[in-house]
Amino acid sequence: MNILVWHVHGSWLTSFVQGPHTFLVPVTPDRGPDGLGRARTWQWPASVRELTPEQLRQADIDLMVLQRPHETDLARRWTGRRPGIDVPAVYVEHNSPHETPADTRHPLAGRRDVTLVHVTHFNHLMWDNGRAPTTVIEHGIIDPGHLWTGRERRAAVVVNEPLRRGRTTGTDLLPRFADWAPLDVFGMRTDTLAGHLGLPLERCRARDLSQSALHAAMARCRLYLHPIRWTSLGLSLLEAMFLGMPVVALATTEVREAVPDGAGVVSNRFDILRDAVRGFLADAEDARTAGEAARAAVRARYGERRFRDDWERLIKEVTR
Fold it and tell me: Tens digit of pLDDT for each residue in 147-156?
């Protein structure tokens, strides 16, 4: 099939485009948010084709995969066809509702002709989905391998734009965590983070790395720290588990589902989180054991094969 999908979330899309279809990714001259085209930091197969809006109008399209509210109108303008009416369509909801945790109505809630696909059961529960047909397809991760060495007694944190996102991503908690362990904070626009938080560079080291270098650098840290208060389930958390890293995380959104007992410590109590961080720093063998349990758990639940099988079933259902 020919599947139209915008490049919005590179990590998620990297797994999605491994399927047996042709993926039509819009591209614009400025490669802006609506026309990023093919990824430059992930490895995508040749089946991912860049098409301009003009080319999309002439393209054969069997399925539209929408991910942002304005893509419904964008798809109609660029292709001349209405999602869910002229062409089968699904809408992937990557995020938890932001305005209020329980009373936010989804933009697709009034439609019956577009299947709403949530990436976590938590999101499915919290959004007001209205009359939209819904399903859940959990994340799938391409296994980067068991790379953990833990030889650096540091905690890895992954967050993009931590200053802009603030309390949502737990940026305000980082000084507290930096008292327990020196941090390597990976992500975009982290270079001024230490100064903004008043932390010495050694206690809060910014690491804006390419995707190819990220996993190896994370895996050198003793543990992965996930301070996120309110987003969907972070792919970086699952990737850290695939690497074989022990996890210390806030017990928010879908984290409790993803991190079973033995794979790390999940809590909203600072004393428990502190003891877990310090414990893994002090005991490399304990960290190794927890990391191996994390890797086994994430491979069983969030593997690429299960993800692709779930999507194949849904694609056949909505296009039949």
Answer: 999 999 999 9
Q: Which tokens sit at 12?
A: 């998620």
pTM of the model: 0.93
Lateral strand order in the sheet of 63-66: 48-51, 22-26, 2-5, 63-66, 89-93, 115-118, 134-136
CA–centroid distance for 43 within its chain: 17
Task: Name the nearest CA neighbour of 8 among 81, 74, 80, 66.
Answer: 66
- Chain-centroid distance, C-alpha 140: 10
